[in-house]
Amino acid sequence: MPTLVWLIDDAESNHRAAAATIAQLPGFELEGFIDGEDALAAYAQRAAHEPQTLPRIVLMDYYMGGLRGDEVTERMRAIHAIAFSPVIVGYSSVASGSRSIVEAGGDTVVRKRIAHDGTNPDLRVYLEGFLGIAGR
Q1: Helices and strands (DSSP H and E) totals, the chain
Q2: Does residue 100 form part of some domain?
Q3: Overall number of domains in the chain
Q4: Residue 15 is assigned to a structural domain of this protein
Q5: Among 62, 53, 78, 51, which residue's Cα sits nearest to residue 2?
Q6: What predicted TM-score, i.e. pTM, was given to this entire model?
């Protein structure tokens, strides 16, 4: 069963870069959300009824319309219906935004960037390390 990664980000270019990166890595599957409210609704529904379908990693943008990434992080962490808690990654193009996500209950920061091949090399390194497959 692949490790599910969620990307919550309102920019389509970031979804394309994450998808291109994850497509190169065996063992991962990506699901994207443009809006924090939609992601929270899906998270709460799955936590209550289908916890096996929850993400293991959440890539969280900071600036994304109605809710900021730190607010989504706090609300996601407040869902106590399950013992499972994903790794929430501050994934903003603004460093202070990623730090705010960590301060709100996130776990780490990965730099959001897009290389010439359309992937994010920093995300690739993080995910390879996450599963301990670096160097394969």
Answers
A1: 5, 5
A2: yes
A3: 1
A4: no
A5: 53
A6: 0.93
